[in-house]
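Figure 2 data, in text form.
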Amino acid sequence: MIAKLAWIQFLRQGARAWLNVAVTGLTLVTLIFMTSLLNGFQLQASKNLKSTDVGGGHYRLPDFDILSPTEWEDQTFSPPPFLKNLSDTEKAEVLVLQGQLFPNRRLYPVQLRGIDLKQKLLDLPLEPLSRQENGNEYIPVIIGTRMSERSRLQKGDSAVLRWRDRLGVIDARDAKVIEVADFLNPRVDEGVVWLSLDRLRIMTRREGEVSWVTVTHNLGSDKHLEFLEPATLMSDILNLLKQDRRNAKVLWAILLFLAGTSVYNSQILNVFKRQKEIGAMMAFGMESRTIIGLYTLEGTISGFGAIFFAFIFGVPFYYWFQSVGLDISHLSASTMPVRERIFLDFHFSEMLWITLIMLSVVIFSAWRPVQKIARLEPTVALRGKGL
């Protein structure tokens, strides 16, 4: 009976009730959209990092730090048998050393990165290196588009490349840019000069040595090496996205506040305009607690209606968005490893929590204003002067 009466009273509110439903429903659609968009951005960034650099993790020496280039020469190792025996689809051996490039008589410190060209684990556009003969005329290298812009080197250009071998002897030769590749990941582009692993080993007298070995998954521990999980190698991007989520919570709080305010104001107006009706209910013997429950349920219907509205409106909207995506080509010059269109990544648990939080806000906003009914006197309320 109470539920039926609450539904009748909800319909009597007319356009105001449906406006509350629409506002709350759009808020729910927006919150789910924002959360899923951040999930999609993180998913795409993680996918690009794993396919171009991280893989399923790295085996390296415990003291190796990619941010300390002066120590790279001292942190190389020969892969143990359990890594050396992996197939080309299960590992990618990488050797990283310091170098200096002299384009147009300018000094440009670079990262010499050699990789086994037979590997098929990482998706890197380095095929032109495998077609080069081991001649002595020049050193064939590949650079990325960002590196090309900063160094002002184009395909076919040459520059002096200087390096130091493991004995401390400095050597230099002409390096020729045989290709300017379009890398998705700025980590493997900015300041990086790509060579074949065999050539870099010969140049630096480091036969059989690597800086790290990228693998598909953790293959167990080794007493001389440590394994870095993908989450550790991507910690900078993950921390940045975590900070974005914290910033987004401010907007989420504002949207929840606006949705709750619309229900709150509607309830206050209902209690004020319908004092005589409340007084009549009290006069007929209805308890204040029952009347409070009735009006709270009436306001809560807006929350359940919002869920239905969000489903009717949100599903077509999300379906359309998944067909077009979000164009973020303007981020191509940033350090984010994402340039493709971003699509939504839905997590059922997050959608459920957002819905429950929204419903809780609506219920509280519907319940709090009607507490004044408990203080009303029936005779005063019948005259419309209780509040």
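Caption note: Residues 2-51+236-382 form one domain.
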